[in-house]
Amino acid sequence: MPDLTSRRGLLFGTAAVSAGALLAGCTSNEKDEGNTGSSQQPAADGKPGKAVTIGFAGPQADHGWLNAINEQARARAGKYADVTLDITEGSNDTATQIGQIETLINKKVDVLVILPADGAALTQTGLKAMRAGIPVVNLDRVFSSPQAFRCWVGGDNYGMGLNAGHYIGEKLKDTPDAKVVELAGLDNLELTRQRTKGFDDALKNYPNIKKVARQAADFTVESGQAKMAQLLQAQSAFDALWNHDDDQGVGALRAIDQAGRDDFLMVGGAGALSAFEAIKADDGVLKATVLYPPTMAASAIDLARALGQGKGVSGLAEFEIPSQVTAYSAVVDKSNVDQYMPIGFD
After folding, report:
1. Strand pairing partners for 154?
2. What domains lie within the chain, and their CATH numbers?
3. In what order do the strands lie in the sheet with 178-184?
4. Half-sphere exposure (Cβ direction) of 65: Cα atoms closer than 13 Å
């Protein structure tokens, strides 16, 4: 862990409030002692209120994180007696997802939560829902127009790279001529570019560290194994690896084991249960992972319920829910992994 007595350690070595923690007040039954004005917009709480039907449309759950998104949404909706969740099967085909969302619009659901397979391609569908009087909570992959959604909830891709870079930087700050490599995701995605930019910006604070190689994979176990094998073959020695995604990290770890390499530390990304278990065991190269928490889907359900009931968020002075909520990319290592085990996804 970074030295938590240092300014950098305080900024980058500890977990900040996530979207789920921020919105905990949405489900709280505690009385808001500070709210004494009769004109104050009431905050959503866990007590049954106005019935709300939430339409949920996401891409196909062909990845551990995406499957966790669906599970988080279902579980959160199930906690509310006043919420009915109408969830689609999910598809990576844009035309299919558009059709699924239009079906939800025609059903006149109260609120829509949409994680688009392609934000740009689904923007017109978001606009259609908003024009029909159905507020949209845009989850993670952002639409091209802010008019296509009432609220955006997602992860901090730049912050993910930034925190990974600072964690590695603190571990290697006393290593002369340290070398790091990066196993990225899909380069045609903006989120991948943001993760890399954050990582590179963090490393600028450590003049002794140089990134010597970068390989882009595509968020699958197979690609992670293949691309990691290429990195290992090209780089006979380096000190740290940052892998953007724990699913592809499963493959990367296979390649590392097959190569018999244990001469570097590895930091993952997202927060898979397998990564948490490896970090806790502490018998391999994986020492930490940077969260991209699927709990953002649960927070999206909280916000959709509040929208449907015309309420705000407890603990905030504003009458309405915020227009944007960004989850924090906490670094999870052996010192705090037990805290995060319950949200690890398969």
Report:
1. 326
2. 17-155+294-329 (3.40.50.2300), 157-291 (3.40.50.2300)
3. 209-216, 178-184, 240-243, 265-270, 286-291, 331-333
4. 21
Helix (H, G, I), strand (E, B) or coil at 346: coil
Helical (H) or strand (E) element with 4: none
- Listed range (109-118, 144-153, 310-319) with the worst mean pLDDT: 310-319
- On average, the pLDDT of the chain sits at 88
The two structure tokens encoding residue 272: 């898979």
What one-character DSSP code corresponds to residue 148? G
Q: Give CA–CA dist 281/279, Å, rounded.
A: 6
Q: Would you say residue 243 has pLDDT above 50?
A: yes
Phi, psi (deg, nearest 5) at residue 251? -70, -40
Give the position of tokens 């938590």.
4
Residue 301 backbone phi and psi in degrees, to 5:
-65, -40
The answer to whether the CB of 60 falls within 8 A of the CB of 92 is: yes
Instruction: Report, as an integer, the average pLDDT of 100-111.
Output: 98
Contact 28, 45 (CB under 8 A): yes
C-beta separation of 227 from 217 below 8 A? yes
The tokens for 70 are: 């669906």
* Cβ atoms of 165 and 242 closer than 8 Å: yes
Task: Work out whether strand 151-154 and strand 136-139 pair parallel, antiparallel, or are unpaired.
Answer: parallel
Which pTM was predicted? 0.84
